[in-house]
Amino acid sequence: MHIRTWLVMAACAVSFLGSAHAAQHRFTVKDDIRIATFGDYPVPPITWSPDRSKAAVYVERGQLEQNKVEGILRIYSTRALKKWITGPKSAAPPTPLWTISMAPYKEGPAMSNIRWTPDSRALTFLKFVHGKHRLVFADLSGKRLQILSLPGQDVTAADIHDRHHYVYAARDPKIYKPSARQTGSEDVTGRPLFTIVYPVDKYPQQAKFYERSELWAARGGAPTRLEDPNSGKPLYIFGEGQRDLSLSPDGNWLLTALPVRNVPVAWEQWPVVLKTYSVHGGPQDLGPLSLNQRLVSRYALINLKTGAQRFPSKAPTGFSATWFTLVQPAWSPDSRRVLLPDQFLFGADGSITRNPPCVALARVDHAGVSCIEHLKPLYVDGKPARKESLKHLRFGGPDNREILIDVERLHVRDHRNVTRRYMPHGQHDWTLLTAKTGHDATDSDTLKLSIRQRYDLPPKLVATDTANHRSRIVWDPNPQLANVTLNPISIFHWKLPNGHVMTGGLFKPADYQPGKRYPLVIQTHGFHIGEFSPSGVYTTAFAAQELAAQGFIVLQTNSCPEILTPDEAPCQARSYDAAIDKLQRLKWIDPQRIGIVGFSRTCYYVLEALTRGKHHFATATITDGVNAGYWQYMLSLDAFGNSTSREDDTLNQAAPFGKGLQKWLKNAPTFHMDKVTTPLLVVGTEASGVEFLWEPYAALRYLHKPVAMNLLHSDEHENTQPAARMASQGGTVDWMRFWLQGHEDPAPEKRAQYRRWEHLCDMQRAQHPEDPSFCVKSPASIPTSDTAASHVSIQGTHTRT
Prior knowledge:
Helix content: 10-25%
Largest sheet: 8 strands, mixed
Oligomer: single chain
Shape: globular
Distance between the termini: 60 Å
Strand content: 25-35%
């Protein structure tokens, strides 16, 4: 080769590499929205067919240009995957048997409730379109999709035997009926305020809060509504019954949970995990506008041939007393037995015991259940206690006589699953045979499919041959990330004053320079080591990678080991203070430029930190959450079983009446807004979200302190809608950069936003002239001599001219 030719080729190579490097850009909210994430509860990432010959894999991502959420369901052949794993390394992954892709609506999940037929030849899922879910049948043989539910129905749960035999629950149409407004007056006693102000007939998006659903079944023809054979009235199920809806393999029996119309007072003795939600005796509201999402219920078997109901046990479900498992019941292949995830049992003498509920076995041919193993509480006295979580229940062994319980170990480095195998011993007892790690119901006999991801590794679908432990990547749904610079993230530990070790994720800028002090943003609400989450944890408000790309250090914090105790929020505030102390000792952050982001429950924690924390925050945001305040307490009357008032009474140590009000005045952060010296952005959602956060906003407005309120044009709590994510996550980036970096996005459509914020900056500077500030002043506040500069720093404050 001539030297000249070699030099030309080398120059081209250098040019190519430089171009490839230049093609990488900083991470933005748009990149976050376009990331495909594998399903999570309630849509699992992998759903195996009953015979394990196929696996359905689900991912979801935002389509920013269309403002829609795209769902992608890939169906793989187990045989093809096994052959590929053991074949040449150069071989490409097998093509899916079928890829179903759709973007039916602006919100997600686009597909949910994925269920296989018992013969493994088809599956069903719920398609979300125009605010309602439709039941879709997917026939693999002809690759055809067919709508099974009736027009206009909003399906809340479903299960299937075949295309002609299936069951589903559809939201009660009475929920959508107009109220009696045209009659001149109506009795609204006992109704939550927001159901009066935002009736479903005028605000149909509110229907999702009402759980009551009718049961429908197809038995060879069109679906018909199931009715009680004694009363002739429709059979209604609510949230727990929808989660437990399970059709026997032969299509003859339906298992669900039915609420008790009148709860026996004696049932108040059943043990609860969270004392705030103890069982209360008396009548339950089972009407169409009931908002009680913690109804006391019993498991029920419904004979689809006769409509007759049978209760395996007279005792309630564990879910009724906050024993949450989120695991579905499991049928035996012969349809004669079914495993119940959380069943209370009466004592031998019929008395109520203090024993936890059980994973229990019920039979369709006679009443009574047998306890296989007791559940372990998630919390004890408000502190985390459970070291494992149920994942799956199934039958196995010769003649399917054995019971297999798959659990995931929590709070340990090794998150491998454990499978416990039980054998019947006598008529009602069970013996634990083995407890093995590493293989569970999500695997076929010799093939394991998993999602390989970590806090710093984007997710990929991986297949493993369990015989030789060889693994290969089947699918990377995010090849576009090769063109994006991901900022480094590391595990960060700090200690509470009592010595308890806290863990979080620390995001640093990609061009981080040792010795330089960076502005810090604390993001709240948890950190998951085993999950790749660029935003930090949720897609509302949080924007960790986005902020790190703009020169911030971001700490994504986990939560204190306190829940529903008076020390819940104070513990969080101490945690933020301790984390800041350590970061200051390391000389990584600028202590004068610290912001904090709250969402959902952590709005309460952020307000606690702003009113009682040791450190001063230069700015803060709270979005769509609770605050244990008086206004929310009153707004929430008769909503969701009065869960808000129950929690707030616990957190503030009394009800806010009589002498109890003094404790609220002492404990509730919203009664201490006069202590806030931090500019605060309050973000609410449509249809009641703004009202729910009105108290801290109104208090600061009355006190003439810098506060802004944004209304998200979305009624989602965790945003999936691309436009809402741009507004929410992008709003956090804009707010933090404005207050901590003195930066304004030059986009013309944001000009009015920054003019409003500049006036808040003037207000903050006037009220606290002794404090360094970095926000952008309004043009009116800039001295004439400074107008020649584009950005001027005066006493630490950046200004726009």
